[in-house]
What does this fold into?
Amino acid sequence: MGDKKREKIPRQEMPEQDHLERTKNFNEVPYGYTPELARLEAARCLQCKKPKCIDGCPVDIDIPAFISLICQNKPAEAAQKIKEKNILPAICGRVCPQEDQCEALCVLDIKDKSVAIGNLERFVADYERDADLVAVPKIEAHRNKKVAVVGSGPAGLTVAADLTLRGYDVTIFEALHETGGVLVYGIPEFRLPKSIVSFEIEYLKKLGCKIVVNSIIGKLYSVDELFEDFDAVFLGLGAGLPRFMRIEGENLLNVYSANEYLTRINLMKAYKHPEYDTPLPKGKKVAVIGGGNVAMDSARCALRSGADEVTIVYRRSRKELPARIEEVRHAEEEGVRFKLLTAPLRYLGNEKNWVTGMECIQMELGEPDESGRRRPIPLEGSNFEYECDLVVVAIGTGPNPIIFQTSPDIKRNTRGYIEINPETMESSKKLVYAGGDIVTGSATVIQAMGAGRTAATAIHEAFTL
Ligand code: FAD
Ligand code: SF4
It folds into this structure.
């Protein structure tokens, strides 16, 4: 195809479930590209000599190479190309914030819309799986070294896959009864179907990795006890401890952390009601506090669980919303309301201790703070009351302290996250590595995977160099 013709192709949007229909179910919202749409979108790529998009990818996927294979009608080979760098393409294609990473640096973004790299990644991964073409790659000779991975989120899964492929004997210990971390207990079915996550995990098991669920390290075994059986330990514990604002009324009935709310819906399968009878907090007028992906997921789940009205209450303006653009768009289309520049001061309750509303205050934006975003400042005298019967607090999470109670020698920073050498991800304790949210605080799937990859390389080097 000539350059002129290529330039005229618009970015191909993904077909989606109708916005009125989808609030009545938990089915996935985007349907994915057809092969025709994928080839058309792939044809937009200029195959740059110095591809900027790769600089935006935390795991260095050869983006133009996989896109070129789609143009050549070789989607299975394209999937293999991605898997050289990323073991979870079907997941990343769905949830990575490409608009801030590879797509933000794509040269087409300057004049037009960037190539839809994430949509193409999802297409090839789905194609490979649906056509039953996923093959187990060659595994290096057994090395007689055992590695324990604590936590089965994207960081742990990546370390486990990389080391298993290099011939290590790897066991993942997971506290919950299901594997996948936030991918299964946090991100809802309509964004990331559980079947996609379990397929990727089955693939890991096929490689030979062992997974032991229902095992809280720090309670069942300490890290030191793990060393009786293993030669190195990786901690991919995530940051799953809910945070509250410590304001009056947080103990009222129907004030929930987003963690508990989403865990009930996802991990404990309330989304499959009545097949599962997990009790789910219900509200007709729901307020979700926060503006990130977790807040959008909670709001969209509340709509699907029978709420009449769901409102995101966020203390900054729309520009600062940390959620993915796609999530905000989907939430708005579905009818989620936004009360911006607003913060709760206290929750109000009735005589039976059920939440009935909250006292809020209006905010204005001042100078940027250490996060680079403009600091919200309360507008004196702007207090008002807001009625609601369910509150979901999604203002961030912190590190869970359990493991450190029996391993106080693992050095942590003032916020409780593990301190590591960024070159190797090794902690202050020899041969104990860490990565993902337990090091950075809440971040992204692909950043956790990037950390896992660095740690796997360092563990391998520690035993071979
Ligand atoms: P996690 O995924 O948190 O996994 C940690 C695992 O360790 C958990 O399974 C936990 O049970 C286990 N564990 C903890 N302590 C122990 C212990 N002592 N013993 C054994 N096991 C233990 N990122 C994106 O890129 N895109 C998105 O759209 C997106 N949406 C999100 C939506 C929600 C609701 C949430 C909560 C997060 C979202 N994120 C998103 C962030 C992303 O999911 C995380 O950054 C990522 O999962 C971090 O990976 P991790 O491996 O470090 O930890
Ligand atoms: Fe293709 Fe954009 Fe990457 Fe260039 S920067 S190779 S156009 S995806």
